[in-house]
Structure formats: structure tokens, C-alpha cells
Fold this sequence. Notes:
- The protein is of the alpha+beta class.
- Helices cover 34% and strands 20% of the residues.
- The chain has eleven helices and 13 strands.
Amino acid sequence: MSETKQDFGKVAVLMGGTSGEREVSLNSGKGVLQALLARGVDAHAFDPAHDALDALRAYDRVFIALHGGHGEDGAIQGALEIMGIPYTGPGIMASAIGMDKFRTKLIWQAAGLPTPEYAMLDEETDFAAVERQLGLPLFVKPAREGSSIGVVMVTESGGLRAAWKTARAHDALVMAEKGVMGGEYTVAILGDEALPIVEIEPATPFYDYEAKYLRADTRYTCPAELPPEQADAIRAGALKAFRAVGASGWGRVDFLMDEAGRHYFLEINTAPGMTTHSLVPMSARQAGLSFEALCLKILAGAHRG
């Protein structure tokens, strides 16, 4: 680490916020704050839901541990750039694109990257036709939410319309996505490196909010038990997917595997969870980085745009 705690100056750890992922963000932020304090950094909690953004002018850099809207979508990144304060994670454009699963897919398709087949839904949609097109099971999700909030798995014919109504309560932009059921995985990105792949095995039908945050029976394997050549190719593809949306710094690229062993990139996370049990710290540990060291390395990469 080339920077010392003195080089960081006064650091704000942004957590909480106003999105549907507020509680998850508070947990991430508390974990980061404790790690930075343990390493002697002059770090302070800052919740944009209660603290005026202008107060950030008193800080030298910002660690963004916000998730969801106004934290992971480019909004807070834009405010920090206007104030000239270095912040962690991707910039405005990549954050905005990464928060939008639909537009992320468009870019990945243009870049020749594999992603599950999908269809956008609205009140004019022929739901029966979409079910025939994508097959069952399929997943319906708000395009601009995270943490699997509002995601519905459709397993029976005729269930798509009701699933759309559930997802629509969280976001007007809703997508249906073909079920790819051979396994769930993620690749953490740190700087120019894709870290070891994590395999996720939920006890629930898919890796939903409950499996992520409320249950103790979700299994994680890191590194994932994949042939080395395949793992290397997927990690290289994840870096390409990350960069395709203009992202840099750190983040996470989730992917699915089908029964034939083909991978499909699912979505990008530009401000992933950062508790001691989250996926990026899990992968970083496998690469030899403790949680505290990971937080310091991310903070050292803070930038202005």
C-alpha cells in the first residue's frame, strides 16, 4: 500500500441513503467504517438520508457504500464530482448504466458478450407470447433495482402478468429473462484484476433477497469448482463486461451457467455489498486480501471522475 492513513485525510463512508437497499447499505457501511478505523483512517459515517450533501465539502475523499438509487446510479457520483471530492468505484456514466439491467444488456450484446435472452414488459405486452418465447422458468425483475428486490420466478404458464405487476411496483421498467439454471456465480473486479470466482448455491429456488441476507443455509464456494481454463476465460470475459460499460476501480459481475456449461453474464454491481460475509470480500480473501486491506485498497483508488 503506497498511501498511509495520513494520505487519505478525512474520509466519509456513505451509507444508508433512500433506496430500497437502505438496510443492506447500512450493514455494508458499518463494515467498511470499522475496517478503516481499525487501520487508523480518520473515517466517519455519513448518511445522505439525514446529512446535507454540502457537508461533504469538509471531507478529503469518500468511500461509497450506498446501494441502489441515488447511490449506485450516478447521482451521488455527479454530486461528488461537482464538489471536486474523490470517491470510490466507477464514475457517473458506468454507475448509471450498471444500475440499468436493460441498457447494460444492450451494451453487452453489442460487445458480443453472452447474456440471457430477455423481453421488456409493459401493459401492452402479449404475456403468453413472451412465455412461449423465453420458456419456463423465467425471471421477472425491475430493471433498475438491486439485491433481487421485486424479482419473481415464474414457473407456471400464465403467471407472467402477475409477476410483471409485482415487479412494476418497484420500477416502471420491467424485464423478463430466460431462466438459466445451471448455477449462479460472481466475479469480483479490483482494479485491473478479476478475482477468484465465487459459486453460489442457495437453498431457495434462486438467489433471492432472503437467500442473500436472511438465511444461513446459502452455500458459497471460492474458488468455484470450474476447470482452470474455463475459469480464466470467464474472468477475462467479466473484465471485458466491466469495461464495456465504462466501469473502473472495483465492482462485481454476476453470471449464470446453463446445464451445458455455457456462461451468461447477468448484471454488474458498481457498489457491491461490503460486509465481512459479502461476495467481494470472500473473493478477496481467497486472493490474499483481508477485509481491512481490501477496504484500504478500494479507498486508495478513489478518483475525481
